[in-house]
Amino acid sequence: MRKYGFSALVAAGLLVGGLATGSASAADLGGNCCADLEERIAELEATTARKGNRKVSLTISGWVGQQVLWWDNDTEDEAFNESGVYVSDLGTTLGSHFKLTGAAQISPGWSAGYVIHIEADGADNLLTTNQDVPTGPSVLGKGIDFAQTVQSYWFIKSDHIGKVSVGLLSQASDNTAILVDGSGSLVPANFVPFDYGGFFLRNADGTLSAASINSTFTHIDQNGIPLNAIRYDSPTFGGFSVSASWGQDDFWDVAARYAGEHGGFKVAIAGAYFESTDAGGLPNNSAPGTKHYQVGAYVQHIDSGVFLYGAWGDYNNDSVVDSDLTAVGVTDITSSNADAETWYVKAGVRQHLNPLGHTVFYGEYMDGKNSADFAGTVTATGQAVSAAGLNTGNLQLWGVGLVQEIDAAAMSMWLSYRNIDADQGVIGDATADFQYVKFGALISF
């Protein structure tokens, strides 16, 4: 019994059951019952999903999320009015996925493990979906079709010293300001333009511009895609923890977090700083000289469920020459500095109003502005020009929504509305008056 373990008990039980019912299968054993038993055990084990080996555990988790999105992109010229209905996943790094997590105890207080995070977007990537493309390509550019590796890394952890991770992973500043949102509305409503970022602005004559909302507007989580890196996470002391990471080619970042309860309120706050020194392998316009700050905070009154969440981000790049400045006559640019600042706020109430689970009502508002400082020469006249704080893009968003959690099914369902007003500032005349309603759900496992 010790040799064969549980599988042997199962096989032996089936064998005994067959004999007890007068089965003739005993005659098939010939004279080598143990060899036949081993063969049957091997067959049984080959069709069984294991929970790791005897030393390293295996846990499978994730969620599947889908939504129906109705959008409307009206213009002053009715000939160019356009609307549509898409069935979509939730967007890269937020979409349907499964995660394999393993851990093994090395000694008391020390462990090692791994994470493999595979995204399986069932319909599209929303950041590249637009008026003409209901199913957009992958932003990460990995994998086949819509299956891609989001994270793959190993780690060593000490209960007293902290955790070191190596591989493709979520760096310290990734999603820092987002993840403090404890309202239950993080997935259907956050400041990343998953639902609308790929849609194009429209020119003054109503035709589609070459510029998308996402390319015109720089959101708070500009460094939002997992990268190849080394990351350190400290233990939590009194609700405080810190993280830091370095990765190719080259960037570094740091983050600090706090969570606790005080005087009947839940409080969570986090901030991060990111800086890149080389362009290789970095996403989201993170060229040399990029600096990115972000802060997020969440407060909830425990008894009433009333909550307030806010986030702020500043993106600065002192080496990128913005070719769009040619639109205002500057073609020989000698220096340029791009900057973006964004504010986001969400308020509402989270209450247990029915047996299903918590119900969340919320309203949200976001304001973002891109600007540039430059110095150069107008080629046609030879005139030297410069500007500070030149407006290169604006975005205002407001929305309302409802989320219903279904605890028995580890599920959330939502219905929400958003209105977006975006423009290119002085570098063009393209604008976007865009609104959408979505109904969706995700179920965790």
Mean pLDDT: 81
Strands, count? 19
The domain tally reads: 2
Query: What is the name of the CATH topology of the largest domain?
Result: Porin
- Estimated helix fraction: under 10%
Low-confidence runs of at least 5 consecutive residues: 1-31
**Strands of the largest sheet, in order across it?**
1-3-4-5-6-9-10-11-12-13-14-15-16-17-18-19
Largest sheet: 16 strands, antiparallel, barrel
SSE string, helices as H and strands as E? HHEEEEEEEEHEEEEEEEEEEE
Which architecture of the largest domain does the CATH hierarchy give at level 2? Beta Barrel
Report, as a whole number of angstroms, the end-to-end distance.
Answer: 34 Å
**What is the CA-atom radius of gyration, in angstroms?**
27 Å
Look at the structure and name the CATH superfamily of the largest domain.
Answer: Porin
The helix tally amounts to 3
Class from secondary-structure proportions:
mainly beta
Shape assignment = globular
Name of the CATH class of the largest domain:
Mainly Beta
Percent range for β-strand residues: over 45%
Summarize the structure.
The protein has 445 residues and is mainly beta.
Features:
two-stranded antiparallel sheet; single chain; 445 residues; Porin; mainly beta; 2 domains; disordered N terminus
Structural summary, described in words:
- This protein folds into two domains: 1-49, no CATH class; 57-444, Porin (Beta Barrel).
- Helix 1 packs across helix 2 (33-46).
- Strand 5 (147-158) and strand 6 form a beta hairpin.
- It is globular and about 90 Å long.
- The chain has three helices and 19 strands.
- The chain starts with a helix and ends with a strand.
- The chain is mainly β.
- A 16-stranded antiparallel barrel has the order 1-3-4-5-6-9-10-11-12-13-14-15-16-17-18-19.
- The protein is 8% helix and 52% strand.
- Residues 1-31 have low confidence and may be disordered.
